[in-house]
Write a structure and sequence with these properties.
DHBP synthase, seven-stranded mixed beta sheet, 2 domains, six-stranded mixed beta sheet, globular, 368 residues, alpha/beta, Rossmann fold, single chain, 21% strand
Length: 368
């Protein structure tokens, strides 16, 4: 009883899910337990030759490579459904070719997902890893004495909603910003994954009226270093100044780098963009859908701040739809247009043409 209280009364299956995410993030395998049996699931990201050899020794010819639908579609599959490939003799070069390499094609039959494999892909997403796994079915009682985390398939499925329900404020303080000196940072814990999220209250917005709001996903390269490949930093600073000059507002700064794919995957995608792919095709090569983010917990953050009606500063229709679906009243959209550079014209055009962002129809490269 004492240790349960020390652990905050968190259900054991939720603890197991959190530990499984941490193990995946560290590149270590996890056992996923299902009604049909148990699977040893290992993220491809971080696998080396020794790890593949160890998996092969456990598999007895039954290993499988599990890939997300977008990656398989890129390899030539007719649809975008996740599936598996048999790995009778696991080999690191072949696994890397199928899971990561651009230009690779399918040369084997796709197999439907087995129980537990979807949970493995979900763990990879929550750990901000590439959605690619090597899976080994386990005999009953196998690895029960090994120091490997075990998690139930149902616990992984239930985890995101449980984390969102536990969203709460953990700290807040005044932090003057350039162009918006009357600002306060409010830090939330909960939401998706194991990350903290920030709300920046600019000025003193009138909560009895629609509040200016921006949902801004973290962009290390643009927000901090001024990358010319995107307009994120411009959007962030322009919105803060506009709110400061027009009655205040709230910026939710969300730890969803690279449209929810994570910083490492974002930089992998940048390398592919340098080879000629647009931002969405680059993500697809890595196995990601066009946008991996969820914004339900952002609506919960706003509600906890007393915001129920919003004037949203965004070009992204998905953010408008997400807040409305979560029960907030979106009364107005304000576009946020940053600088156009020779390096970001293609990126802006892709967002307009492939994701429906409210960006001008004409995108001419600027004079240099």
């Amino acid at each position: 009883m004492g240790i349960d209280k020390l652990l905050g009364g968190v259900p054991r299956d939720q603890l197991a899910a959190e530990r499984a995410i941490a193990e995946f993030r560290a590149g270590r395998p996890v056992v996923v337990e299902t009604a049909a049996g148990a699977l040893l699931t290992a993220p491809v990201e971080g696998l080396d030759s020794a790890g593949v050899a160890a998996l092969a020794g456990l598999a007895a010819g039954g290993a499988r490579l599990v890939l997300a639908g977008p990656r398989l579609h890129r390899l030539g599959a007719p649809d975008r459904a996740a599936a598996a490939l048999a790995l009778p003799a696991p080999d690191l070069a072949e696994i890397s070719r199928l899971a990561i390499d651009d230009g690779a094609t399918l040369d084997a039959r796709l197999l439907p997902l087995a129980p537990g494999e979807e949970a493995g892909l979900r763990l990879a997403h929550l750990a901000a890893l590439l959605p690619a796994l090597v899976v080994v079915p386990l005999e009953a009682g196998a690895l029960t004495d090994a120091p490997v985390v075990r998690v139930a398939e149902a616990a992984v499925a239930a985890y995101p909603a449980r984390r969102s329900a536990a969203l709460h404020i953990v700290s807040r303080a005044k932090v003057p910003l350039e162009g918006a000196p009357q600002s306060e940072f409010v830090i939330f814990r909960g939401g998706e994954g194991l990350r903290d999220q920030a709300a920046v209250i600019i000025g003193q917005p009138d909560l009895s009226r629609p509040v200016a709001v921006r949902l801004h996903s973290a962009c290390l390269t643009g927000d901090l270093f001024g990358s010319l490949k995107c307009d994120c930093g411009d959007q962030l600073r322009m919105t803060a100044r506009a709110m400061a000059d027009n009655g205040g507002g709230v910026i939710l700064y969300l730890d969803q780098e690279g449209r929810g794919n994570g910083l490492a995957s974002k930089i992998k995608a940048y390398r592919l963009q340098a080879e000629g792919l647009d931002t969405y095709d680059a993500d697809e090569v890595l196995g990601f859908d066009h946008d991996q983010r969820g914004f339900g917990f952002a609506a919960d953050m706003l509600r906890q701040l007393g915001v129920s009606r919003v004037k949203i500063h965004t070009n992204n229709p998905n953010k408008i739809a997400a807040l409305a679906a979560a029960g907030l009243e979106v009364v107005e959209q304000e576009r946020v247009i940053g600088r156009r550079t020779p390096q970001n014209i293609g990126y802006l055009a892709a967002k307009r043409d492939r994701a429906g962002h409210s960006i001008d129809a004409e995108l001419e490269p600027p004079l240099v």
